[in-house]
What does this fold into?
Amino acid sequence: MPGLPDHSKLKNIMTNMRIKMLVLTMLLSAGIISAQEHKISVQNTREAKLILMNFPNNLPIEGYSGNEVVISAENGEFVPPERAKGLKPVYPGGNDNSGIGLSVEKSGSTISVVCILPITRHADYKIRVPDNLSLEIESGCERSSNISVANMKNEIEIQNCHGIDLRNVTGPIVLSTISGDINISFSNLAPDRPMSINAVSGEIDITLPAKTAANLELRTVTGSFWSDFDFSETRDNLKKVGGNEVGYALNGGGPKFSIATISGNVFIRKGN
It folds into this structure.
């Protein structure tokens, strides 16, 4: 019939579309189509501090032996529409000078990175950082983010509303969460530095090296303590308010290590 496409041409069009979809799927699977990245060079990494604020979704952070902070973003809507060509995005939280919804500022040895995407938009971020800088992370309850940090050799401070997971870290650490579990596995502990962990509603599960020397102070209101360390000689001079409190000089004692949760159990495990 006049006006209808030729059957062979239509078949070729469909075949080409299938080929393009197959190639796209293969590229995605192979990682050839990569996430967008923003890199920040760091001088004197041991003295540097990285502050991360308001990141959405789960935020994985991994330390490595380098001198750049590498932030990758996937599933974000960062390409401007055709009508916005030549214009810059305007966010209420600041200026996107990264191209991936982040405001980055450097002041001396401190780097501040704030996610300025509105809560109606999201992206999946992953961050690689020099393993010997210090970290400070803050995320509000509206962001629904679980934070995980691995392979770090310096101070970590996290204020979150949900879960916190630390693996292969040395500290010192200062952690607090409102509604989420805290899981920590230490490779070893920084000497002569106090540490503090606080949760309102959630379990606290910590693995310490077997030879850890610390003055532990454990508190919970409605939960219990569980450990495979020898707690036979606990201090009993702590004032009890409500639930349970235990003080113990682990392996002869050392820096203060305070661990507290209102509604949850505390697990202290013996590592290697």
